């Protein structure tokens, strides 16, 4: 065949095949997809998806070069293993359906081109679906975006499962530009390296409303004064505010002095009631068209308060219209509200005084979504952020959160209801940020349970204002190494508003502040239950409940121990109908359990609690006003506290069937009550601020005898006499409706200056009763200090019952013959009863313990070896110490020289002062006699009555001493608590005489040491001389047997004298023999080498 023809035919075939392939390829490409030319295998996408379309791994990667919309009715299906590469600022908008469901083996990826710089970010996958639309992402990776997924439609459903969202500059998932949320589920997904929030559900503007920027005149492009206002719907704590004008108008020249007004409009009347200008420490313009106000401290903006900023030197936009102004409220650089855009409306009409009207704004709602089983790590702000006017019916559960800049889970709303936050594991949140934070006006039916939180400001925080809080359950959480375990704050608009919550089965330990802190000073705590919690080792205290009134409070089965302040305290004006039962309050550095009121405690039961080893009062009831409120303290065990029980101001108290023993707090500094020494079993005193009276039982008008203008005014409009009067000697009084906790006024008299009188014991309700208790082991069993209820004064003219009697019958005081009292029973041998003011009736007495006796432990100590040499290890043992009704829990050792000087002691043990081990190892640097003492404490915190001691003798050179027992045993104890004799110890010759392998050089100063050294030295000299002659091949004048004989004789002398008692020579003899044998073997080996 002709060669030219062949070439032409081949060219035609190649061209034809190329065209065919191109045509087939074109048929296989979906609508909107353009295949790249050349060697690049990328498929470019530049057109919308208008019909059902599939993107496959075989035809990928797909590079989206222009915004793409999946139109309504169309479905874009992305198959497993497909990679979608989006160009900078590109959005995939979904109005129809998107199904991107990969597999674990073949995940789908949304990313940038591999050649793109790291700074390049594509915009987002944006869902704008209709009611029948859906967006599904599973087993996919979303990375290098501004917002991974943006949801801006409330219709349809969005599902995200097994998705990794990473390296995103703003939010992983963002719900915005819609007033509602669709059905949204996020599960088993991972969010990491997110610039702002992991998942942000912020329909509308979250809780921000009434937002606008208004110019004082309408000239375009001209300098003007702008007024920016916006209202927050929930309490918001901030230390900075940032305002950004984007590309229209300008604030680049705004400075600190430009602000004429910056503060809070608290009443919604357009004026600033609280100025923040004094807190303004700086203003930065930074980059872009923005300014940032910085405050010198954090400020909480109350719910429904309006922030007002009026500033000069702003520049109007160059054309009329409405322009966006972004506002950010920051704390520690973390935004605290939803992304907020204020409209700057500039029109030719001016409209300079227009203010946004919240009534025209649609209420935003966040509901019907769940975020579960997901992981959040390295998040710039909050991991999960929910903000809406109404946030309800959603779950955030079983997620893992670490290394976030803000709170891990933050829920904000005017109303937060029916939400569950549970099973989350949270660690390392931002500075002043919380593990779970709820900020609302109305909060109800929220379940915060099963979370494990470390390293937060508050593990769980609830802030509410102006509305009731109901049905909040905080249960089964663990919060450790945070500032506060659980923190609740409420501010009421009206005093009748209330907070109801349950705190159950939580572990709150090793936090710097309190385990639980509930503070609502103007609110009623109603039906609060604190049950089954473990609140231990917190820095400031265990639990604090503070409110105006605490009603129907239950405190049951909690362990509150080893806290840095009071274990459990209730503080308020009134505490009513409460129950405190089955708790353990132990080893707290303040009171064990304390109730403090400024008005009254009434119908409070404190029963079956174990109260041990607290630095203050075991059970403390402290009323400022004296009243007849009923308090029942029964079946409690109160021991080893600085004080046992204190009743102040509650003349209706009943203290019965308790065990109150050994409250002497032996270890550490006690928290002292003013005027009372520690070591008192029971303190009974009156309130020092006044008294409460009911006037229904008197004929005369109380107003006629009062000289308190405020009381007189309040009594004028009253009908009948069934009302209560609070009289205070040094403060204004109060009048309210009848109160069954009030004292009863029996008579009025104008003949005495005080006006009102109650004869001694005329009202038998108004007496403290202390009956059927075991009270022993104290220097003072009870102190009575009940004075005149209100002293004679010109304000109240009141005197009631100048002598109050405490009924203290049938108690056991530690001895069969009863307590000691200076005048009633001076020969009693039990605990002392002291009456400062008032009187006590303690007869008859019980002659034996009414319940199982409680004993002090007995200390015992021994020292070995004794005598000991300087520098020798000495073992101190208290292992023989004992406790009849428990176990010895700790040992406190001390060492002192008998001449009173400070000992020079080296301690080999890890704990010389207090240890859970009964053994301690010491060494003494100077000779002398040392007194070693030990005190022991049992598992209830009770310390032994007397120390056990032993004398350790330390010598320079050893000497024989007669063996003697140095063990000290205390005598048996008795329930009176006065038993336990001083232990004594005598030296014991047992012990190791060898201080180590190398003896002291002083052993050679003894006769045996010198004789052995002489013989052994002769052997060494002769042996050395013979060795030299042997190496010179000369004759040796002394035989080897003679030389070895001298050495053996020296060794024998040392060993013999050592066995006879000269310390150290036995070791010298053995060492000398071994050395001699080694030298002989070495010499033999050397000579063999030379002559063989």
Brief sketch in words of this structure:
With 1092 residues, this protein is mainly beta. It has five helices and 81 strands.
Q: What is the typical, i.e. mean, pLDDT?
A: 83
Total number of beta strands? 81
Put simply, the count of helices is 5
Content of β-strand: 35-45%
Whole-number total of structural domains:
6
Ends: how far apart? 100 Å
Portion of residues within helices: under 10%
Broad shape: flat
Give the class from helix and strand content and strand pairing.
mainly beta
Describe the protein in words.
The structure is a single chain. The protein has 1092 residues and is mostly beta strands. It folds into six domains: 1-28; 31-169, no CATH class; 208-360, Immunoglobulin-like (Sandwich), CATH 2.60.40; 590-817 and 843-854, no CATH class; 855-993, Immunoglobulin-like; 1004-1091, no CATH class. Helices cover 10% and strands 43% of the residues. It has five helices and 81 strands. The strands form eight sheets. It has a 53-stranded mixed β-sheet that branches. Strands 21, 24, 25, 27, 28 and 29 form a six-stranded antiparallel β-sheet that branches. The protein has a five-stranded antiparallel β-sheet with strand order 19-20-26-22-23, with no helix packed on it. Helix 3 (1007-1031) runs antiparallel to helix 4 and helix 3 runs parallel beside helix 5. It is flat and about 125 Å long. The termini are far apart.
